[in-house]
Amino acid sequence: MKLLHLVSSSGYYGVEAVVVNLCMGLTALGTFSTVGVFDNSRCSNLEVAKVARQKGLSVAILSCRGRADWTTVRRIADLARLAEADFIHAHGYKAQVYGYLASKLHPIRLVATYHGYSSRFSGEGRATLADLRHQLYDAMDLALLRRFDRIVAPSRMLERSLLSAGIAREKLTVIGNGIELEGFSRAAPSADLSRLKSGGLAIGVVARLTEGKGHGDLFLAVKGILAEYPLTQVFVIGDGPLRLPLEALARELGIERSVIFTGKRSDMASVYAALDVVVLPSLFEGMPMVILEALAARKPVIATRVGAVPGVIRELSTGLLIEPGDSRELQRAIKRLIVDDGLRSTLAENGYEQMRAQYSAAGMAGNYQRVYESALRR
């Protein structure tokens, strides 16, 4: 069996990591994958292509000059034909649009993974332009998916969204995201982060510095903790448009010496290994890869009850759950892990065992393989 995977984003975040892990797992099962990466002329970023090639995967760069580049459509159709692909597997709205149009030039079965968009507002009391854009993309995405042969949802929550949008149940399968466990569980701590640690609890927040990720709530919680536990530190892993405002917020709260902005990192396994606790205080999420990676790295997790998170983080078993936007509850949860070493160890081991049983890359690939085989039979 042969597949052409189309990846909407050219960076390397959660969705892109899932695609690379899936293709590697499928290779082990004898299924050949080509990763088609869009190269946007206005914002070129080929990081996912670089990682995929490093992993030994076949990669095709798809130059794209705009929202409706018919040269790119023809390139995808030709690529699918030359590769003798059985499926185009689209990941993301742009990939789904171009994959669907290419199937009109070269008839081919279509599979999509619905990674979801946020349909929540930014919390400013009104819808921002970005909020409205996401909602529009989500609506168009769901409408287009009705034309695909098979759709995979990474969580029950996203499955419910698809069903409510009119996607036929017989086309739907739920397959959780999977990761390579050994790379995270056996990594050595990052040397540069280890040198920056002061001896207190090292808290990591791994997310793009954008609206809705809850960095401000974490900063407020830490301000209340430092008076009692002054060696506590926050490592802000990631980058984005809110970096300068967040740095200013840390100074305003008087916690700038305890908050370390690392920027975006490519050595995430080593980063997790250097942390004591991972916090994801998001106001909205789908199925965040950060949580899966943290559990695979044997790190206790504090996360908000949003999206598919409660399906992964089980209170007092694999982590601690709090309400989104509640900095006081977040402060209490962090303090609880500061004073209770035994609870931290229990959450870390339980989380890793859950990952091994339910979220391995090999298991994910096997489930996708069955979806492809079922579509071929039809």
Looking at the overall shape, the CATH architecture of the largest domain is 3-Layer(aba) Sandwich
Number of helices: 16
| Assembly status | single chain
* The number of domains: 2
CATH class of the largest domain: Alpha Beta
Give the SSE order as H and E letters.
EHEHEHEHEHEHEHHEHEHEHEHEHEHHH
Report the strand count.
13
Q: End-to-end distance, in Å?
A: 15 Å
- Helix/strand-derived category reads alpha/beta
Cα-based radius of gyration, to the nearest Å: 21 Å
Low-confidence stretches: 118-126
What features would you highlight for this structure?
7-stranded parallel β-sheet, 47% helix, globular, 16 helices, 378 residues, 2 domains, 13 strands, alpha/beta, 6-stranded parallel β-sheet
Structure description:
- With 378 residues, this protein is of the alpha/beta class.
- The chain has 2 domains: 195 residues, Glycogen Phosphorylase B (Rossmann fold); 177 residues, Rossmann fold (3-Layer(aba) Sandwich).
- The chain contains 16 helices and 13 strands.
- It has a 7-stranded parallel sheet with strand order 3-2-1-4-5-6-7, with helices on both faces. Strands 10-9-8-11-12-13 form a 6-stranded parallel sheet, sandwiched between helices.
- β11, α12 and β12 form a beta-alpha-beta unit.
- α3 crosses α4 and α9 packs across α14.
